[in-house]
Amino acid sequence: PPPGMPPGPMMGMPPPIALDNLNKIYIANLPINFDEDNVKELLSVFGNLKNFSLVKDPATNESKGYAFCEFDSAEITDLVITGLSDTDLGEGKLEVMRAAS
C-alpha cells in the first residue's frame, strides 16, 4: 500500500473525514471568472464563513475553478451542500461536498 495507508480493505476507499473538518466544504466547477468576492457573496447568504480559500494558479493568479470553505455549524454546512449542489452557474453544475482531510 502507499505510505500512510493501512493494508487491506481500506485500499481504494476515500479518506475518512476528520472530526475537525466536518464543516469544511469543497466546491468545484466554479466559473473561472469568479473571484474571491464573487464566491464569498454566493456563500455568505447561508451563514457566517469561518474560512475561505479560492484555489488559484500560481503562475497566472487566476482561479482554478474550485474552492474550500468552512462554516460555523454542521447545519449551515448541510444547507450549503443541499442548496448549491448541481447549481448551474454557466460553466457546468457545481459539485459541493464535505472536504475530506
Protein model, in words:
With 101 residues, the chain is α+β, with helices and mostly antiparallel strands. It is built from two helices and four strands, in the order βαββαβ. The protein has a four-stranded antiparallel sheet with strand order 2-3-1-4, covered by helices on one side. The longest helix has 11 residues, at 74-84.
Summarize the structure.
The protein has 2 helices and 4 strands. By secondary structure, it is an alpha+beta fold.
Structural class: alpha+beta
- Tally of extended strands? 4
Major sheet details: 4 strands, antiparallel
Into which percentage range does the β-strand content fall?
25-35%
Question: What would the principal axes of the Cα set say about the shape?
Answer: globular
- Rg (CA only): 15 Å
User: What series of H and E elements makes up the topology?
Assistant: EHEEHE
- Given the structure, what is the number of helices? 2
Q: Which segments are poorly predicted (pLDDT under 50) over 5 or more consecutive residues?
A: 13-19
Strand arrangement across the biggest beta sheet: 2-3-1-4
Q: Mean pLDDT across all residues, rounded?
A: 83
Helix content estimate:
10-25%
Give the terminus-to-terminus CA distance: 19 Å
Features:
single chain, 101 residues, alpha+beta, 4-stranded antiparallel β-sheet, 2 helices, 26% strand
Give a topology summary:
Elements lengths: L23 E5 L7 H9 L4 E8 L6 E9 L2 H11 L10 E4 L3
Antiparallel strand pairs: 1-3, 1-4, 2-3
